[in-house]
Amino acid sequence: MQRRTRRTFMRFVLTAAITAFAVNIVTPVMAEDKVIKVGTLKLIHGVTPYFYQKFAPEGYKIEVVPFESPTDGKNAVVTGTVDFGIYGLAAATLGAAGGEPVVVVGAACNRGMAVVSGIDSDINTIKDLAGKKVAIWPGSTQEVVILDRLAAEGMSIKDIKPIRVSFSDMAPALERGDIDAYVGAEPGPGISLAKGVGKIVEYPYSTPTGSLNMVLTTSQEKVSSDPDLVNTLLTIHSKATEYAMSNRDAFVEIAMQKLGQPEASIAKAAPNVELTWKIDELFLEQARYYGTQMLDKKQIRELPDYDTFIVADFVKKIQAM
Predict the structure, then answer these.
(1) Is pLDDT at 136 greater than 90 in this prediction?
(2) Strands 181-185 and 113-118
(3) Around 279, how many Cα atoms within 13 Å sit in the side-chain half-sphere?
(4) I want to staple 73 with a disulfide (CB 3.0 to 4.6 A). Which of 55, 67, 236, 321 is the partner?
(5) Contact status, residue 237 vs residue 40, Cβ threshold 8 Å
(6) Is 1's pLDDT higher than 80?
(7) pLDDT digits (tens, 9 = 90+) for 215-244
(8) Structure-derived torsion over alpha carbons of residues 230, 231, 233, 236, reported in degrees to the nearest 10
């Protein structure tokens, strides 16, 4: 009986040793998977990263980190909390102008903005915003654009009553009557339209900034020390962008899933969104103009060094393939 017990014990020990050996062989292989953390905003024009895994090379895992504000996204890139971030050009310019190591390596989206007022309000033009409570998110691309539009109408921020409201709270605030209008980001305008509580005052793309909105960024450290990773991510980004724009049903579905909005709202928002990835001469021209507007409005003290702030080399490399 003791011999049988001893033999059973020895078999158990041998089995455990073999299992441990097998685990030690398998684990290093699994550990080779490279995790790339990508931050993006909780907006319909920020959903591109949710398609990244579909185009990621074997051995890469994409972790998407959602952020509420552009500043949060920019700070995450600067601190290394994420490897890459998608947010507005305003936050990126603000960081670079302040000496932070933010680098734009690709475009992310055009359009996606709208000035919205209550469905029964008398606000039908930009000039009608005079004296009204207007929700604006400070430090956003929308803020710079609306200031430019106000100036074009002979107005300034002093002619309206700006209210600090996050993008996701703008549509609900308008519905409650807390504000008279907002300068928002999709799907906010789409939500207001679908619910029948808001109307489009203007899609503010008539300024020299055009429809330029969000950008793909990383840190200077990543560009300098790991250009292969930047190239890999941008290649994924380009493929995911092209896929989302040519598969509207998939685009709408992922936006509904990630933003928790009904199809009616997303369907209203989607036509006002152009996902993109290329940096061309128009992009550079608009980005530089945008910086001058931020400087003019004293949002930054000096312009960033555009030779290091916007790096188009990775985009050009992909386009040449």
Answers:
(1) yes
(2) antiparallel
(3) 26
(4) 67
(5) no
(6) no
(7) 999 999 999 999 999 999 999 999 999 999
(8) 170
Q: With bands split at pLDDT 50, 70 and 90, how would you rate the model's confidence at 321?
A: confident
pLDDT at 313: 95
| pLDDT for position 33 | 84
Burial (0-12, 13-18, 19+ Cβ within 10 Å), 200: middle
- Kindly report, residue by residue over 15-60, the tens digit of the pLDDT: 444 444 444 444 444 457 899 999 999 989 899 999 999 999 999 9
Measured between alpha carbons, how far is 199 from 116 in angstroms, rounded to an integer?
A: 6
Alpha-carbon radius of gyration of the chain: 24
